[in-house]
Amino acid sequence: MEETSREAVATAVQRVAGMLQRSDQLDKVEQYRRREARKKASVEARLKAAIQSQLDGVRTGLTQLHSALLDVKDIQGSLADVSKDWRQSINTIESLKDVKDAVVQHSQLASAVENLKNIFSVPEIVQETQQLIEQAELLQAHRKLMELECSRDDLMYEQYRMDSKNTSDMNLISIYFEDVQSLSDELAKQLWMVLQRSMVTVRRDPTMLVSVIRIIEREEKIDRRMVDRRKQTGFIPPGRPKHWKDKMFQVLEHTVSTRIEGTQSVTREADKMWLVRLLEITRKYVVDDLIIVKNLMVQCFPPHYNTFNRFFSLYHAAVSARVKELASEDLEANEIVSLLTWVLNTYKSAEMMGHPDLFSECDINQLEPLLPKEVVDHLLSKYIQTFTLNITGWLRKALETDKKDWHKDSEPEADQDGYYQTTLPAIVFQMFEQNLQVAAQIDGEFKGQVLKLCLKQMNSFLIRYREEAVAYKEEHLRDRQLPPCYVHYMIAIINNCQTFKESINSLKRKYSQSPEPTESDAAIDKTLGGVAKDGCQFLLDEVFLDLEHHLNELLTRKWLSGSHAVDTICVTVEDYFNDFNKIKKPFNQEMTKEALRRVVVEYIKAVMQKRMSFKNADERREGAERMIREADQFSFLFRKLAAGEDTERLCGAITAIAEVFKLTDPTLLFLEVTTLVSKYPDIREDHIQALLAVRGDASREMRQMIIGTLSENKVASSATSQPIFRDIPVPTMSMTSMTSMATSKLLK
């Protein structure tokens, strides 16, 4: 208390100090004193009121406790009296057992009397109910059925209460009401029939479907009531619970499954497009039925049934089961593609489950896949295997057909630019295009696999194509009169290589997901280049087989005396190249260059073979001038054929050799040979010796000096220009030719 008083005094001092901080506030001291007195009086009044209220509450509580104590004592006394009376009445209660039994019997009899009318009218009600069921008056029939079941169930319940072990009376009641269960089963059949035709019923007579749902809902309520009573009493009527609601969903599920399974109208034997027809019919049925469910059937079912989503799931499950059955069958390649395209693309598209009329009611992204991934992978693997076998057979057949065309008497067809071609590239790439279009319908990854397989098969096919082209050439060499259009079809084979290359690039641009070149691309390019190169070589071989006799006349005595071998060579080459104009670029250009090179090489080879040796300066001059004219002929011809920049250099080799022969002063021979070597650094020592031998006037010492000096000052070959002399052999001089040369010198 003292501490509280001190705190109060300190607080008061602080308040007074706060009010009297300035001198002018001293005038208001009396005012402050009155204000504080009023506050004190107010606080004291509130304290008194609060204390008085607490005291009144305590007084009231004590009074109530006193009253409660008195009541408890009265109750205790009353309980004691009741206990005393109960002990005294035990014997009396036992003596009233007969009365109790009489009361139970009275209750049962009262129930029997109450149901007596119904009991005697059971046969009549059964007959009426049967007629109502036959007339499809299902609601009225169900009401009658409920009356019969109620009478039976009440009688059985009373019997159960009276004597639950008395089975004979129970059996008697069951026998009397045995038709009731038959009526229930008959009514159920009618309900299931309506549900099985629900898609038709909901459009023709939706009230019938509503009646069925109402009956099932009533039975569900009765089932719940009977189950609850069994928990309390242990009794449940026969046939309960009926579970008609569960049965209804089973019927609907079976109906949907049957509808999906019944879409197959034809078999593979009757129609090759049976699967496409089946899938299209299934799609149409599913979409049409779900639209009916959304627009009509939902209104016939209670909202808590979640009708649309339930039917949506049922159709999804039924379609999934059906496509699994189809996937397990021995499907052909085109059927696998049709099935997978439908499953992976069509099913969730706007044409089916994603239809605009259904999209707002469901989320197609929540649907489970129709086919498990392992089944899809198995089908894709099976398709790849079948496709590999098929495409190998197709390519083999296409090549066999093309080979037959090679032996025709008529020339191959030409494209719009006049280039010879066969139908092989078009057939092959039409095959590839069709299969890639089909694969693209499934997904991008599978499309890439099919493209890769096509390119792999293409490479193998081109290897066989090359082998057949070689065999075609060898067959021709056995009899050059056959096949009659050998040159034209070899040109077509070369052109096909360019068409193949363009078609492959087109396929890759259209179907490849990666623009980067692959090992397969390099292999195909190499094989195509090999086929085209072989074809060009075969054609040039054909040309030079015709030129062989005329080439053998070059640099001989007959040639020197006025042979027309070069004229014939030029005419023959030009004639052949009129046909070779039908070869596509770049092969025709490369072939022209190679033809020029081979002509020049064969000409120089004739020189190096030392078929003759000039006897005097006049022969050397005449031979050299003839060589220069013939070089000009070759140059003119191949410029006309557009052989390219190397024409002058190649033909210039003949001219340069002619200059060596034409030289009249032997002392300048070294300078002329040096000029030749500087222009054509790939020329060898044996070439120089052969040239000097043909010239015929170079002494042994001069030859040795020229060769020695050239060996010491050897000119490096240029990497930019194609060598001419490198591949030209110089035959070793036989004894006969040596004797001939010696005789010639002696005569000279």
Automatic annotation (TrEMBL):
GO biological process: exocyst localization; exocytosis; protein transport
Localization, UniProt: Cell projection, Growth cone; Cytoplasm, Perinuclear region; Golgi apparatus; Midbody
Keywords, comma-separated and alphabetical: Acetylation, Cell projection, Cytoplasm, Exocytosis, Golgi apparatus, Protein transport, Transport
GO terms, molecular function: SNARE binding
GO cellular component terms listed in the entry, alphabetical order: exocyst; Golgi apparatus; growth cone; membrane; midbody; perinuclear region of cytoplasm
Subunit structure and binding partners: The exocyst complex is composed of EXOC1, EXOC2, EXOC3, EXOC4, EXOC5, EXOC6, EXOC7 and EXOC8. Interacts with EXOC3L1. Interacts with BIRC6/bruce. Interacts with MYRIP. Interacts with SLC6A9.
Family the UniProt entry places it in: Belongs to the SEC6 family.
PANTHER family, per the entry: EXOCYST COMPLEX COMPONENT 3 (PTHR21292:SF13), EXOCYST COMPLEX COMPONENT SEC6-RELATED (PTHR21292)
Main function: Component of the exocyst complex involved in the docking of exocytic vesicles with fusion sites on the plasma membrane.
Protein name from the UniProt record: Exocyst complex component 3
Originating organism: Oryzias sinensis (Chinese medaka)
